[in-house]
Amino acid sequence: MPHLISNLVEKAYTPSIARIAPKHLVRKPQLGRQPQKITNIGNTALYRGFWRFTRRWICHNHKFWYSYVVLCAIGMYQVYYAVIVGHYVRKNYHRSMEYAILREQEWEKIKPADDDDDLFDDDDEEDDEEEGAAGDEGADDDDDE
Description:
This protein has 145 residues and is an all-alpha fold. It contains five helices and no strands. It has a domain at 62-111. The longest helix has 30 residues, at 62-91. Keywords: Membrane, Transmembrane, Transmembrane helix. The chain crosses the membrane at residues 65-89. Residues 112-145 are annotated as: Disordered.
């Protein structure tokens, strides 16, 4: 791989014939406009017409040009939003609120009947709490004296 070595670093690599070659025999590239490379799609009249329209009517009219730029930005935002956020939403549907509500509705339909309500009687607990609170209030009155 001697062709990777720079001539500035390795002067001994440059052949002596290249150093003494006459200037008129050295082929230099012609500076100027190169011929346009046209593909099959770029050769169609519709394609060329689109770019001609863009050059004449959009690029030379600043209102159309800025409208075009803003519309392209909105389009790019929508595409990226649909791809990235849409993928996230689809991937995490099982964590969404809609899915939780749906699962709760399904659970309400298939929930087993509550037969063991008599084990936990809420009325007895409330009565116990009221009795305890009344006893505490009397004790507080004695401490204030």
